[in-house]
Specification:
The structure is a single chain. The chain is an all-alpha fold and 460 residues long. It has a single domain, classed as Up-down Bundle (Amino acid/polyamine transporter I), CATH 1.20.1740. The protein is built from 18 helices and no strands. Helix 6 packs antiparallel against helix 16, helix 6 packs antiparallel against helix 18 and helix 16 packs antiparallel against helix 17.
């Protein structure tokens, strides 16, 4: 989805100004459902299922609660002080420039990792047709194509995004209908080893609580993008409808997620599912539905590529906005006037980030998706935690919201710490720590620079 900038001081409404929205609450709910479903769910959910089995269904329920809490606080801040920027603006408003700077760069790093995850997901899905071609080649092709889309401009891009959002939603509904038909016996076939409905706690949690704990991050990751929908609540006709819109959106997503994942683990053993193939394709692979894998893969690749291109466009423009606000070097404000006013330095830095994913795909083709997706999901949890913390500072928080925010923080931290429990995904945790540490060190350095500049200004 085309994510807005992070600071918002250049193109935002002034504090307290009410933006004139034209969306009804149910329209925002549908938009949120269509835009949130992505490759993180279609492929990334396989990592969680592989870890915890049927209890992944409950992971999505827990993640829905945590996601709603984040949406709740962001929507409240947005309606109280409408801004077209992102939560980084509110971090700065709550704690000062250092918080805005750190949040902006952490958000930029998150988006780069998410693009790397999407890039890898698209490559893995494409290997379904060309299994002998190395992963890094597909990653290179998709990276070049996404850069080309940005170079061509974005006229009409939103309309294409809306169409592809419908395609993504239709794809998962197609799986649900076909799976239901197969279970009802309307479609012959299926595996003799179908696990069926788990009849004991041990079958629901085959890996125990630690495995369930480790799976939480991938359920949260499937709800990624809710921060953008929270910001879009300022486009509602009635701003007070934002909480209702968020509730309906998350209920809709949760129902779709839980039903589809439940059908997948009911139809095929979770041990056969992996991050190398969409669990929905694996679940129907033993049925005579030769068209399904091809149609499903094609639909997800189209929608996923569109999302990745939108993310690239957003990241490029995000860095320009950060530079204008003084949160990035001034060089990133420079644009090529002769080429659609292209912010070349910002695009080059984003391309370097994508290149890192390609190199990793070359060196670690078997583990790259797990590592990048894990790191991206953890950084996303850091961002979401700061949304709640900023709301505590900005809003007049009542006791009920204090408790709600506390529950949200616990769930988000649970998703992060759960990745330490599982050896196969632990490297992603350390990658996120390294990136967060780099942002923290740079922030400390910049605070000293700002203080020195302020002192010199006073003395002069």
């Amino acid at each position: 989805m085309d994510t807005p900038g992070c600071t918002g001081s250049n193109d935002s409404t002034t504090p307290g100004q009410k933006s004139k929205g034209n969306l009804k609450w149910w329209q925002l709910s549908l938009l949120g459902i269509g835009c949130t479903i992505g490759t993180g769910y279609f492929l990334g959910s396989g990592i969680g299922i592989k870890l915890t089995g049927p209890s992944m269904v409950l992971s999505f329920l827990v993640a829905a609660i945590g996601t709603y809490i984040v949406f709740h606080f962001l929507a409240k801040m947005t309606t109280a002080d409408p801004q077209e920027g992102s939560f980084c603006y509110y971090a700065g408003k709550a704690f000062g420039r250092w918080a805005r700077f750190a949040s902006a760069w952490n958000y930029w790093s998150t988006k780069i990792l998410i693009m790397g995850s999407q890039l890898t997901a698209l490559s893995i899905l494409t290997k379904f047709w060309f299994p002998d071609i190395p992963l890094w080649i597909f990653a290179s092709v998709y990276a070049v194509l996404s850069i080309a889309v940005v170079l061509l401009g974005t006229k009409g891009f939103d309309k294409v995004e809306n169409v592809l959002a419908v395609i993504k939603t239709a794809a998962i509904l197609m799986f649900i209908l076909l799976a239901a038909a197969a279970l009802l016996g309307w479609i012959r076939g299926g595996s003799d080893g179908r696990p069926g409905f788990p009849d004991s706690l041990g079958h629901v949690f085959p890996g125990g609580f630690p495995a369930f704990w480790s799976s939480l991050l991938y359920a949260f990751y499937a709800y990624g993008g809710v921060e953008t929908i929270g910001l879009m609540s300022m486009q509602l006709k009635n701003k007070k409808d934002a909480p209702k819109s968020g509730k309906v959106m998350l209920i809709g997503l949760t129902v779709i997620y839980m039903i589809s994942i439940g059908l997948a683990v009911f139809m095929v053993s979770y041990k056969l599912l992996s991050e190398k193939e969409s669990p929905f394709v694996t679940a129907l692979s033993s049925y005579p539905l030769t068209f399904f894998p091809h149609v499903f893969n094609g639909a997800i690749i189209m929608a996923g590529f569109s999302t990745m291109s939108a993310s690239l466009f957003a990241v490029v423009n995000l860095l320009v906005t950060m530079a204008k606000d003084g949160d990035a070097p001034n060089v990133f404000t420079k644009k090529l006037e002769k080429f659609r006013k292209l912010p070349l330095p910002s695009l080059v830095l984003a391309a370097i980030g994508l290149s890192a994913s390609i190199v990793t795909a070359l060196l670690l083709p078997g583990k790259i998706y797990e590592y990048i997706t894990t790191a991206a999901g953890i950084l996303q949890m850091y961002n979401w935690s700061f949304i709640i913390i900023s709301a505590y500072k900005i809003l007049k928080v009542k006791t009920q919201d204090m408790v709600l925010g506390g529950i949200g923080i616990v769930l988000l931290l649970g998703a992060v710490t759960g990745t330490i429990m599982e050896k196969s995904i632990r490297p992603g945790f350390f990658v996120s720590l390294i990136l967060a540490a780099i942002v923290a060190v740079v922030t400390l350095i910049m605070v000293k620079v700002w203080n020195r500049m302020q002192t010199n200004t006073i003395n002069n």
